[in-house]
UniProtKB/TrEMBL annotation:
<feature type="transmembrane region" description="Helical">
    <location>
        <begin position="235"/>
        <end position="253"/>
    </location>
</feature>
<feature type="transmembrane region" description="Helical">
    <location>
        <begin position="305"/>
        <end position="327"/>
    </location>
</feature>
<feature type="transmembrane region" description="Helical">
    <location>
        <begin position="265"/>
        <end position="285"/>
    </location>
</feature>
<protein>
    <submittedName>
        <fullName>Uncharacterized protein</fullName>
    </submittedName>
</protein>
<keyword id="KW-0812">Transmembrane</keyword>
<feature type="transmembrane region" description="Helical">
    <location>
        <begin position="29"/>
        <end position="50"/>
    </location>
</feature>
<keyword id="KW-0472">Membrane</keyword>
<keyword id="KW-1133">Transmembrane helix</keyword>
<feature type="transmembrane region" description="Helical">
    <location>
        <begin position="202"/>
        <end position="229"/>
    </location>
</feature>
<dbReference type="GO" id="GO:0016020">
    <property type="term" value="C:membrane"/>
</dbReference>
<feature type="transmembrane region" description="Helical">
    <location>
        <begin position="118"/>
        <end position="137"/>
    </location>
</feature>
<feature type="transmembrane region" description="Helical">
    <location>
        <begin position="90"/>
        <end position="112"/>
    </location>
</feature>
Length: 346
């Protein structure tokens, strides 16, 4: 295992600067200021979620007509279909299963090396859960896709997802006369022709957007802040550390290139909630047990702690924005290169 973790003397062990189990560590202005910012941000995020996640509550207006779908709405097939009609859903399934297998192996090795510590594996655990759930949804989607385009004829109707559907002419009618209909997965279909997503699909979409921001934030902090610091201290990165802070981003970006998931800006609130829950959990654990902090800027013993917390909170916006820009660039390029087969909602 040493070829993965590197020599013990080169491993990075954060220094415990203060005893976190004593009351004086928490009863001071630094903690109260940080706690005020955290609670304010949590309240703002929850209000944003409550106001925006209302697609199911606005089905019709006072006149009984259906309202236009909002960005919070999600259709079931968006979780498993590729963004190009020429790509079979099985390819996305194969990618997700492969990513899940690699990340699961990496997670098991990390837990074994770190003695079961969840502090350094929580992000890769979240990404692994994403690909595990995505694999299940893709399996179900491939089954549905197979039933639709498997060549079966039901009630005298042939179905073709790329060319649309048509009714087989009755006896005596000209075979050249057919009634074309909209394809089940066509870009021009109406929103009511598709099944709305269930709770697992919504959970998958939310996990995707949480991981998108979290991967950008964590990897940027690691590669641009911690790694230069470690280089100054003559520490050497091992294969495990590099894998944990690179494979998650590589696989997530690969899945983003394949999938049809949207990326509404308001769901940055889930990203904030995820980070806040992690911070509060860290506070509770360190208040009970004297442990090292997984990230130095979480340490409340420094007089600069409030500034660090505020800076990391601000970093959420550009990190989430970078991923939103990547998806926007994907929409722009693929819709230009493949105008007939690109089918993501923009």
């Amino acid at each position: 295992m040493s070829f993965v973790t590197g020599p013990e003397e080169d491993s990075w062990h954060p220094v415990m600067t203060a005893d976190t189990t004593v009351a004086s560590y928490w009863l001071n202005w630094r903690f109260f200021l940080c706690a005020m910012w955290v609670l304010t941000l949590m309240t703002t995020a929850l209000i944003l979620i409550w106001r925006k996640e209302n697609c199911s509550k606005r089905e019709s207006d006072s006149g009984g007509e259906t309202n236009t779908k909002t960005d919070s709405c999600l259709y079931d097939d968006e979780t498993w279909r590729p963004c190009l009609t020429g790509i079979h859903p099985a390819w996305l399934l194969a990618f997700r299963v492969s990513a899940f297998a690699v990340l699961l192996v990496l997670l098991v090795v990390a837990v074994y090396v770190n003695g079961g510590s969840i502090f350094t594996t929580i992000l890769i655990t979240s990404v692994t859960i994403y690909f595990g759930l995505g694999s299940l949804l893709s399996m179900r989607g491939c089954y549905r896709y197979h039933n639709i385009v498997g060549g079966d004829r039901v009630d005298n109707v042939d179905v073709d997802t790329e060319q649309g559907t048509y009714v087989t002419p009755a006896h005596g009618e000209s075979s050249s006369i057919s009634v074309p209909r909209k394809s089940l997965y066509s870009n021009v279909e109406g929103p009511d022709a598709r099944q709305p997503a269930g709770k697992w699909a919504y959970a998958f979409h939310i996990i995707f957007q949480i991981n998108a921001g979290a991967v950008m934030l964590t990897d940027c902090v690691f590669w641009f802040i911690l790694v230069p610091f470690l280089a100054i201290k003559d520490y050497h990165l091992n294969v495990l550390v590099i894998g944990m802070h690179s494979m998650n981003a590589i696989f997530l970006l690969g899945d983003t290139a394949f999938n049809c998931l949207r990326f509404p800006w308001f769901r940055i609130a889930y990203f904030f909630v995820w980070t806040i829950v992690y911070v509060i959990f860290q506070w509770l654990v360190h208040a009970c047990v004297r442990l090292w902090w997984p990230y130095p800027f979480l340490d409340l013993s420094s007089s600069y702690a409030p500034l660090w917390y505020f800076a990391v909170a601000l970093m959420h916006i550009p990190c989430y924005g970078v991923f939103a820009f990547i998806i926007k660039l994907k929409h722009t390029l693929l819709s230009r290169w493949f105008p007939e087969s690109y089918r993501c909602l923009r």
